[in-house]
Each structure stands twice: as structure tokens, then as C-alpha cells.
Write a structure and sequence with these properties.
This protein is an all-alpha fold and 184 residues long. It is built from six helices and no strands. Helix 1 runs antiparallel to helix 2, helix 4 packs antiparallel against helix 5 and helix 5 packs antiparallel against helix 6. The mean pLDDT is 87.
């Protein structure tokens, strides 16, 4: 009789535990899994947009606006490419500002959250500003490089460059806020 009652108690306990887990725990874990997955996706997209800003600025920097040796057709094609790259900058910074709530809060460290929010707002404002294209590129690269390294770099790179990145980012923000854009 002892064995039978032990088996019945074990079976009832297993059924109650499985039912309770299925009704209460599993839905919460699935919802949490979905939220964490969405945060990681937003974080990855933020990283993609950071790299887009760096790559696009580099392309714009290396491609001359005009060359006297170019034919009119080539001149139009290069202008089209430059316009497309400028649109990519606009799209990337717009996404970062519009979705800052999705990725910034997902980092456990406050410095990453602060970096992300400050970067998104500053980069978007810079793209919208009336500064010359060369100045925008220079400031965007100066803003993006420390953020990319501190948020997405390997831990030893982040640790080694932490003070320099903080200083460079702060100096760029100071420069960005102190420079007057040209009057219309």
C-alpha cells in the first residue's frame, strides 16, 4: 500500500506541477522571451545603423563632389550616388531617434543607455542641421566611433578605450553645441 500511495502522490504532484507551469509560468516566459528577442533585434538594428553612418560618411568623404575630367553622364551618376548616400544617413538617423526606446533601455549599464540616447538625438540633429556636408561628416564620425566601440566592441576594447571614448564624445558634443550653423 505504501508504494501505491507514493506513486499516486507522485503522479498527482507531477500533473499539478505541469498544469500550473503550463498555465502560469510558460506564458510569462514566452512573453519575456518575445520582449528580449525584440530588444536584441532593435539593438542589432541600431548597430547596423551605426555602421551605416560610418560607412556612408567614409564613402562621401572619398568620393569627390565633382571632377573636371568627368563626362556629364558620370557627373550625374556620381551626384545620384552621393544623394543616395545622404538619404541613407537621413534614414539611419531617423530610425535611431524613432526607435531609441526599443534599444536604449535594453542595456543593463546606464552609460550605454546614455550613450545611445545622446548619440541618436545628436546625430539626428546634426543631419538635419544646415552645416556644410564636410563638417557634418567629420562630426558624425567623431560622434559615432566612440559609441560604436563602447556599445558593440569587445569588453577589453571597451575597457581600454573607455576614458578616451567618453572624453572624445563629450568634446564632440561640446563642439557640436558651440558651433553656430551658417545663417540662411
Amino acid at each position: 500500500m505504501n508504494l501505491a500511495s507514493t506513486l499516486v502522490v507522485a503522479a498527482v504532484t507531477a500533473v499539478v506541477t505541469a498544469t500550473a507551469t503550463g498555465l502560469f509560468v510558460t506564458p510569462r516566459l514566452d512573453a519575456r522571451k518575445k520582449r528580449i528577442g525584440e530588444a536584441h533585434t532593435a539593438r542589432d538594428t541600431f548597430g547596423t545603423h551605426l555602421m551605416t553612418v560610418l560607412a556612408t560618411c567614409s564613402l562621401l568623404e572619398q568620393t569627390p563632389v565633382d571632377n573636371p575630367d568627368w563626362t556629364p553622364v558620370l557627373r550625374d551618376r556620381v551626384k545620384g550616388e552621393r544623394d543616395r548616400w545622404l538619404q541613407q544617413l537621413d534614414d539611419a538617423t531617423r530610425w535611431m531617434v524613432d526607435h531609441v526606446f526599443a534599444y536604449a533601455g535594453s542595456w543593463p549599464l546606464q552609460r550605454h543607455k546614455d550613450f545611445a540616447v545622446s548619440y541618436a538625438a545628436s546625430a539626428r540633429g546634426l543631419v538635419l542641421s544646415e552645416r556644410e556636408e564636410a563638417t557634418k561628416r567629420e562630426l558624425l564620425i567623431a560622434l559615432t566611433t566612440p559609441v560604436q566601440r563602447q556599445v558593440f566592441g569587445f569588453w577589453w576594447t571597451r575597457a581600454r578605450h573607455y576614458a578616451a571614448d567618453q572624453r572624445a564624445f563629450a568634446e564632440t558634443l561640446t563642439r557640436l553645441n558651440s558651433e553656430e550653423p551658417p545663417a540662411p
